[in-house]
Structure formats: C-alpha cells, structure tokens
Amino acid sequence: MAYVISEECVSCGTCEPECPVEAISDGEDKYIIDPDKCTECGACAEVCPVEAISPG
Q1: Would you state the pLDDT for residue 50?
Q2: What does the pLDDT read at residue 4?
Q3: How far is CA 47 from its chain centroid?
Q4: I need a labelling partner for 43 at 20 to 30 A (CA). Which of 26, 29, 33, 50 fits?
Q5: Strands 24-26, 53-55: parallel, antiparallel or unpaired by DSSP?
Q6: DSSP-derived secondary structure letter, 15
C-alpha cells in the first residue's frame, strides 16, 4: 500500500527530492504522493520533520 501524506504536512518540500521514483509532487495545500508510482520504500517518511507521512 502506498505511503500517504496527512494534513499535518507543512509543505516544506523535504520529502520530494528523497523519492527515488518521483512520486511526490506539490499539491494545492500539501504535498501529495501518487499511489501508482509509490514503491513503498519509506524514504520520504524518514526525512519528514513533522511525521506527516505514513503507510496508507
């Protein structure tokens, strides 16, 4: 199951460059993860400063 970004996201952008498959993009109010691209590696969750990313 793909990782998801919760409403706790502060749009800092730390996660985006960590994604090896470029599944993360800047959404309207927060960053979003494309579930079709996500490989569930967890690299984004490891660097999130507010712990807003978790397995979906």
Answers
A1: 98
A2: 98
A3: 10
A4: 29
A5: unpaired
A6: S
pLDDT in tens, 25-48: 999 999 999 999 999 999 999 999
Question: CA–CA separation, 45 vs 13, rounded Å?
Answer: 12
Cα angle at 33 between 38 and 4, to 5 degrees? 90
Domain range list for the chain: 3-55
Residue 21's pLDDT band (boundaries 50, 70, 90)?
very high
What's the pLDDT score for residue 20?
Answer: 98
